[in-house]
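ESCALATION

Customer reports they have been waiting on this structure for their group meeting. Please prioritize. Original submission:
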Amino acid sequence: MAEAIAISRNGFPAPNPHVGCVLVREGKVVGRGWCDFAGAPHAEAMALAEAGFRARGSTAYVTLEPCNHYGRTPPCSLALLAAGVARVVVACPDTNPKASGGAERLRSAGIPTEIGLLAEEAAAENRAFLFAMANGRPLVVAKAGASLDGRIALPSGESQWITSPASREAGHRLRADLGAVLVGRRTVQLDDPQLTARIPGVVNQPLRIVLDPLNRLTGRERVFDDSAPSRHVTGVIDLEELLASLFAEGQIGVLVEGGARTIASFFEDRLVDRVELFLGAKVLGSGPSWLEGLKLQKLSAAPALRIDGLSRSGDDVRISAAVEFSAE
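Update from on-call: job pushed to the front of the queue and completed.
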């Protein structure tokens, strides 16, 4: 199962979950698989194709319960049955009501099926999917690249580049992994970003969402080009309703990239679940910060960050953290 969890990290399957599958027969691995992108063969199908006839009588180790419905691909539960797999070991149950039930179908066909092996480790690779299924909205990740003193640009607006190429590549991976990226109108006007995931292996570009309450953008900005799907949100914007609509369309994650007030609006509505902060090895001394305008009246009301990742990213420091809001 540990190997299945490791290979589940491959690909960019959003809005589908990350899944890894390893087939073992007579103590030897005969097939490995994962989902490269939404619409590609699922992990079980890839592993079965590699194993061929050797899949018969094997044990399948799968990080997420095999799907049990016809979507873009046929049910993996039926594929395992047809291949003659003798036993199935699952890490996490599938909490998507449209796809769950694979374990029960396998059991009803006489295939011993267990759930729970290394469940916590497997769940960590599927944070966005499992969160979305449990909460009825996408996981919201606030991401920023800033100087060590928290500045995202000089007072003149110059910002390229504060962080390293490695950090910018990691940002592109976050876009692809979450499946949607969101910015405010001012970020588009200042930077004219394309907001695509320009890294190898990305087949389905993330949905690009722009919040523009007063409809000031022209529609000719690069974020609205045909390189990826986009949504121009105008008028009165209710962030909870927006997230609910995105979930209804199948989105499991949203990367909020800026600007400072847009990120703050998600914090104010207590809708930020995680933070990915890339701090470049520079100090600017002045200029806009990555988060502004929370209007806190006391320190005890400040959102807390539970840091669960601290690493080097090129010359930068990357901080990954869960957000905890006070009861006040």
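Sent to customer with the following note: The chain has ten helices and 13 strands.
Escalation resolved.
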